[in-house]
Amino acid sequence: MNKYICGVLVFCSLNYGPGPYVPAPPSWTKPFNSQEFLDNMMKNSLSRFNQPEDAKRYAKFFSAEKYGWGASQFSCLNTLWTKESNWRWNSVNKSSGASGIPQRLPGDHPIPTKWRSSAKLQVQWGLNYIKKRYSTPCGAWGAFQAKGWY
Predict the structure, then answer these.
(1) What pTM did the predictor assign?
(2) pLDDT, tens digit, for every residue of 50-73?
(3) I need a labelling partner for 117 at 20 to 30 A (CA). Which of 43, 85, 104, 143 fits?
C-alpha cells in the first residue's frame, strides 16, 4: 500500500504521511554571488581560462567588482596589458625577467609557482599593484607612456 498519497499541488494527505511536502528551492533561486561564480568558472579549467580573451573578461569583471572601475579604466588596462604581454599568462620579458599578464618583475620576493600558471592570480595581482601604485589603470597607462614601463 502507498505510504504517501500526493495531489497535483505536491501536498500530501495528513492521513497518509508526515505533512505537506515542500521541495527544496531550486539552485537558481539563490542570490547571485559574482565572486563564487568566477571562482567556480575558473576553478578546474585553468588551461581554458588562460586564453587571452578569457583573462580579459575576468579582468573587466573583477576590476569593476573589486575596484569600481568602469569601461574607460578597462580601456586603459586593455591597452596597457596588450602592450606588455598581449594578455598571455606565460609571457616572459627576456631582458628584465618580468612575467605574466601584468609583467611582474621578480624583485626581492619570489613568485609563487601557482601564480606563474594562473591568469586569474596574475590579473588579481596586477590590478592590486595598479591600485596601490597608480590608483587606476589610466594612471598606470600614463606612467607607461611617459617612462616605457609601469
Answers:
(1) 0.69
(2) 899 999 999 999 999 999 999 999
(3) 143
